[in-house]
Task: inverse folding
């Protein structure tokens, strides 16, 4: 376990916000958790982080930041049809996806290219191109901070929803995820429900394999998303709003090309990016902060922006979209 005092978080959040925390603790193996409790680290302000790719720091963090760095992918069960893998929270999501593709395990290929760590994937039920991580999660293990007791939740107990889980709601800041168990198929199965992915595969005209699907996902992502080595961002800044049918009917009268996706009998999901675009904000820039010109759902730190600047900017986007559509966009990003 390494502890750093008055530590800059600049290289630990993809928005590239330069703020200090009082203490920064790197957890390299699970037994170190006990020391955190023994030393009363959780008695004051704390934050568990992975890759910092879904966080916006708006001020210095007056407390302890705990970074998960535990590694390990263990095969715990295998049949002709599927495998069960137990993966430590600190494994890079990218490494895990590569491991699955390399071993011909099906289920996470649509989620290639998402930054961050395995332990954070269940928190907001990461999703992309028609897939969500909940579809391959078997269970999630960790420690409850308030009770200092271990927990093991089956998928059904995680209350997964669209960019949502029990870890982002009632257990927010009270559960340290240490392991995620995945059940993956050994039988070829592809999810090509996202039209852009289908089009990309047709364009490249290659046989359908895990690698060709993953390559197509990467091509689609690269065509829309900023390169986080150059620009600060946290991916989609806002959630796609879920609204009653009546709201869609009203909006369709004003904006005939409005896009919607069915959710249940009475609700649809709208595309937040389209609403931002309709408000004329795609490519809008104020100083160091802007709406990414190729994907209106992404807010970028062009250079040296503070968390406060990004906060003011996203509030202005919310206000302008609300004035035009009556819809208030909620951040997907964790604003700290
Ligand atoms: C360019 C880009 C593209 C992206 N594309 C997508 C996408 O397609 N789909 C998508 O869903 N997301 C996307 N994201 C968002 C982000 O990558 C994911 O949400 C990712 O899972 C966050 O992982 P992280 O390790 O960086 O988490 P962090 O940002 O470090 O943490 C996120 C949240 O999880 C909590 N947390 C982290 N680790 C633990 C733990 N071990 N136990 C308990 N709580 C924990 C944190 O406290 C925080 O609340 C994108 C981000 C970027 C920058």
Result:
């Amino acid at each position: 376990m390494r502890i750093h005092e008055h530590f800059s978080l600049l290289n630990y959040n993809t928005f590239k916000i330069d703020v200090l925390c009082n203490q920064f603790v790197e957890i390299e193996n699970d037994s170190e958790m006990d020391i955190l409790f023994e030393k009363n680290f959780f008695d004051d302000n704390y934050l568990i982080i992975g890759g910092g790719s879904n966080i916006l720091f708006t001020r210095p963090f007056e407390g302890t930041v705990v970074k998960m760095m535990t590694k390990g992918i263990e095969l715990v069960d295998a049949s002709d049809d599927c495998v069960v893998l137990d993966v430590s929270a600190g494994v890079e999501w990218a490494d895990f996806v590569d491991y699955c593709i390399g071993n011909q395990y099906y289920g996470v290929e649509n989620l290639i290219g998402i930054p961050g760590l395995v332990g954070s994937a269940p928190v907001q039920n990461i999703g992309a191109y028609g897939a969500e991580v909940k579809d391959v999660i078997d269970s999630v293990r960790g420690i409850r901070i308030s009770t200092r007791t271990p927990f093991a939740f089956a998928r059904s107990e995680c209350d997964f929803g669209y960019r949502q889980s029990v870890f982002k709601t009632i257990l927010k800041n009270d559960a340290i995820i240490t392991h995620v168990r995945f059940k993956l198929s050994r039988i070829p199965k592809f999810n090509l429900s996202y039209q852009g992915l289908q089009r990309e595969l047709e364009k490249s005209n290659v046989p359908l394999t895990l690698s060709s699907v993953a390559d197509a996902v990467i091509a689609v992502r690269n065509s829309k998303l900023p390169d986080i080595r150059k620009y600060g961002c946290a991916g989609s800044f806002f959630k796609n709003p879920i609204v009653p049918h009546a709201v869609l009917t009203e909006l369709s009268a004003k904006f005939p090309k409005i896009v919607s996706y069915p959710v249940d009998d009475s609700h649809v999901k709208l595309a937040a990016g389209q609403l931002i675009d309709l408000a004329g904000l795609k490519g809008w820039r104020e100083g160091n902060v802007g709406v990414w010109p190729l994907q209106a759902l992404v807010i970028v730190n062009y250079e040296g922006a503070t968390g406060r600047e990004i906060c003011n900017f996203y509030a202005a986007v919310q206000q302008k979209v609300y004035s035009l559509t009556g819809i208030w966009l909620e951040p997907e990003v964790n604003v700290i």
